[in-house]
Amino acid sequence: MKREKHLKRKDQNLARKVALVGLAEKKAWATPKSTRSGATEKPNCEQVERVRRICLALPGATEKSSHGEPTFFVSQRVFAMFSNNHHNDGHVAVTVPAEEGLQAELIRNEPEKFYRPPYVGVKGWVGIELAAVSDDELGLHLSEAYRLIAGKGKRRDKCLP
User: Fold this and answer.
1) Which domain holds residue 22?
2) What is the pLDDT of residues 85-121, one digit of tens each?
């Protein structure tokens, strides 16, 4: 009986500690980035809406939040990721896949518009600075990214019995 009470009390104390740690973590993540890092971060709502309007006009495109940013999918595969000064990198951009070899050419020819994004840049994805492109040009890049990703899913389906 004593042992059971002791174990029950131990479990309750552990549960309280876990709850307190969870609450502390929640509060830290709930704090806006601008107050944590000291940087002033603008929401860039116009740029997000611009990307959203173009992406969601494509057939079967959906939007979900991934890594705290709006991300656009077709057939459960990412074809565009919005980047709003992610990790204070200074880019308000959209990141998209590019045809093989195109990333380097775009960056070399127009470095004020295009950059190699972290993490996915090694896979050939390219970052597009939204302030530097028109809606028409942005639409072309997003449509091409959509075509690349949607096409991969279709080819795979054809191989299935």
Assistant:
1) 2-30
2) 877 888 899 999 999 999 999 999 999 999 999 889 8
